[in-house]
Specification:
Length: 214
């Protein structure tokens, strides 16, 4: 089980590293665009501020050649940490097979169907990444998608893992795991909210009231 930060912010990365339970980072072109016009240079900064664990980097180029060269350049910055994150298209599946053959770890993102999970398995991807909240808003349900992906990977006895993304609440985080996701990635505010529960907060207030404060 791995919990990752979904952000391209250096400040978020530094704050997440201090939480103690966040093991890596996922980014995408939209998140990168908020922070920089030089994504590969920015990736180096993220790797430096978060010194351990995987960092998933999604190429900003869209053609096969552009994605290939950018993924190779990103992986060269930290071969043991960078995971090339590719959209679940035919070209990207083909590219994932090539990159994994070169020793570059890959993940397929925006995965919504068992067929895409099958292709990720065949390409040797370490992760498939479903967008849970987006699926909940635009299909039969985000957790239904996670269930179907988990069933396919189990049927294949695959080493490919499900990394649930597009998580907007602590409930979506925990429900994704309960429905078959192996790992999760979420924004900093969601990660900070994971311990929150009204009964816990009530108990803390009772403890504080019972013990004289100095």
């Amino acid at each position: 089980m791995t919990i990752l930060l979904d952000s391209a912010s250096v400040d978020d990365a530094a704050a997440a590293a201090e939480l103690g339970f966040v093991r890596g980072i996922t980014t995408n072109p939209a998140l990168m665009a908020r922070e920089t016009k030089e994504p590969l240079a920015h990736l180096e900064r993220l790797l430096a501020v978060f010194p351990e664990g995987p960092v998933c980097y999604q190429p900003t180029g869209t053609s096969f050649a552009a994605m290939r060269e950018e993924a190779r350049a990103a992986a060269s910055l930290a071969p043991d940490r960078v995971v090339a994150k590719l959209p679940a298209t035919l070209d990207a599946v083909r590219l994932a097979g090539i990159l994994t053959g070169e020793g570059i770890r890959c993940a397929l993102t925006a995965v919504y169907s068992p067929a895409q999970a099958l292709l990720a398995h065949e390409a040797g991807c370490v992760w498939i990444i479903p967008y849970v909240d987006r699926a909940a808003r635009h299909s039969d349900g985000g957790l239904t998608v996670v269930n179907s992906l988990a069933a396919m990977l189990a049927r294949l006895q695959s080493d490919t893992r499900i990394l649930a993304a597009s998580l907007k609440s602590s409930v979506q985080v925990s429900d994704s795991i309960l429905h078959g996701a192996h790992d999760v990635t979420a924004p900093l505010d969601v990660l900070r909210g994971l311990p929150a529960h009204p009964l816990t907060e009530s108990a803390v207030r009772e403890f504080a009231a019972a013990w004289p404060q100095t």
